[in-house]
Amino acid sequence: MDTEKLTEYIKNYLENDRTRSAIMLTGAWGCGKSYYIQNTLVPELDKNEENRCIVVSLYGVKTLEALSKSIYLEVRAKVLSKKSEGLNAAKIIGKTVVKGIASFFGVNISVSDDELNQLYQSIDLTGKLIVLEDLERSGIDILEVMGYVNNLVEQDGVKVLLVANENEIIKYENEVGTDTDDKKKALTKRSEEYVRIKEKTVSDTVPFYADFNSAIENILGLFGKQYFYDALKEKTTRGVPFIVDEIKNLMLEIKCYNLRALLYACQKTMEIFHLLKRIMQYHIFALFYVPILHLH
After folding, report:
1. What secondary structure letter does DSSP report for 176?
2. What is the pTM of this model?
3. Quick count: other Cβ atoms within 10 Å of Cβ 55?
């Protein structure tokens, strides 16, 4: 599905799904998943109600307590305001997150119901979507992460979108058949366990396919440089900028669909242009002004 339909699908999950399960967005590294979330999904979800989307990266996170801390701090920083903290409306409380953050700080959550309720009230997740990115890059055992997510969605009723390159999670091994030609691929035992818990936790897995024309054009426009804008003006008969068409064809030719690599390439190109400009300015100064200085 295209990004517009994908956004509508996620909005419907957030607003209407009652299955108490998570959903997953999967795609290759650099295909634009994070770009889509930050530049399309978050602005759309925040359009009518601010801060509905809580985005946390699992990259480098090594414990569930640290994950709870990340979610807690993100919620506190982006969602809660003095006005919302004072409301007494019914809330969905992320008990899994509370237990994790309490454990992280060494808090005994059984000592005081009042203190526990204060923690509950401080992380209201009603109507919010927790987006957990970089699932495959997490420093936490993947089965522990999936168990944690299962608690969030099943016990706490929280809505969770997992973002992953699932090809880096699910691994296969050769299963020996009657002869060499009869060998078949089978899931590793670890992958079998992952698939089992995923079936219990995730209701839908959606492959992510980037709109390369729009993504490339948006990346070029990110830098706010005139030479990028000028390059985007000339268009094909299909209304696609020539430079976008050329970049997309090159990506297809070398079979590299990594938009992050394009972003880095644009950054380096901008730096090279800036350096060349400085060099030219220096040479112009040396050519015209240095001889004049010598005359004086």
Report:
1. P
2. 0.71
3. 18
Evaluate if residue 182 carries a pLDDT over 60.
no
Distances (CA, A) of 7 to 32, 57, 95, 206: 14, 20, 28, 12
Give the tokens for residue 261: 């690599």
C-alpha 162/C-alpha 93 separation (Å) is: 19
Residue 198 confidence (pLDDT): 95
Within 10 A of 230 (CB to CB), how many other CB atoms are there?
10
Residue ranges of alpha helices (H) inside 17-158 are: 33-36, 42-45, 64-78, 82-85, 95-104, 113-122, 142-150
Instruction: Considering only the C-alpha atoms of the chain, give the largest distance between any 2 of them, rounded to a whole number of Å.
Output: 93
Alpha carbons 23 and 162: distance in angstroms, whole number:
6
Q: How far apart are CA 37 and CA 131, in angstroms?
A: 9
Q: Of how many residues is the chain composed?
A: 296
pLDDT tens for 196-242 read 999 999 999 999 987 778 778 888 877 777 777 888 888 888 888 88
